């Protein structure tokens, strides 16, 4: 599977999420990630656009709906702590998780 550069860069800002959105039917340990804004000055709308693009690509690559947005910030706060929570199931996740910082070099 060919992974676009924008997906690789987005996954470099991702980390596994174990605390938020655990009640959602689409939550999955090892599949749910929090993706933070690129910079503290990025708008919430920009993060939304990036994550929606990731989900569209993942669903297209798998041929079925494997990506679900569980949480998206609505209002911009100028801090790096804002993040979206997304679940991406296999087969796509097994290909893109290698770009996450905690999996780099694995």
Condensed summary:
By secondary structure, this protein is of the alpha+beta class. 29% of the residues lie in helices and 18% in strands.
Structure description:
The chain is an alpha+beta fold and 106 residues long. The chain contains 3 helices and 4 strands, in the order αββαββα. It has helices spanning 5-11, 44-62, 92-96, and strands at 14-16, 32-36, 67-71, 83-88. Strands 1-2-4-3 form a 4-stranded antiparallel beta sheet, with helices on one face. 26% of the residues are buried.
Strand-helix topology:
Blueprint: H1 5-11, E1 14-16, E2 32-36, H2 44-62, E3 67-71, E4 83-88, H3 92-96
Antiparallel strand pairs: 1-2, 2-4, 3-4
On the 0 to 100 scale, the average pLDDT is 94
C-alpha-based Rg, rounded: 13 Å
Low-pLDDT parts are: none
| Assembly category | single chain
Number of helices: 3
Let me know the number of strands: 4
What is the H-and-E element order? HEEHEEH
Task: State the helical fraction.
Answer: 25-40%
Give me the side-by-side strand order of the main sheet: 1-2-4-3
Distance between the termini: 18 Å
Query: How would you sum up the global shape?
Result: globular
Structural class: alpha+beta
Number of domains: 1
The major sheet is characterized as: 4 strands, antiparallel
Estimated share of beta-strand residues? 15-25%
């Amino acid at each position: 599977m060919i992974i676009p550069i924008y997906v690789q860069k987005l996954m470099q800002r991702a980390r596994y999420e174990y605390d938020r959105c655990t009640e959602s039917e689409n939550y999955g340990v090892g599949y749910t990630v929090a993706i933070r804004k690129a910079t503290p000055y990025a708008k919430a709308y920009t993060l939304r656009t990036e994550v929606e693009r990731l989900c569209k690509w993942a669903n297209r690559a798998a041929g079925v709906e494997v990506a679900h947005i569980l949480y998206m910030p609505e209002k911009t706060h100028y801090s790096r702590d804002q993040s979206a929570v997304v679940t991406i199931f296999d087969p796509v996740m097994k290909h893109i998780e290698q770009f996450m910082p905690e999996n780099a070099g694995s």
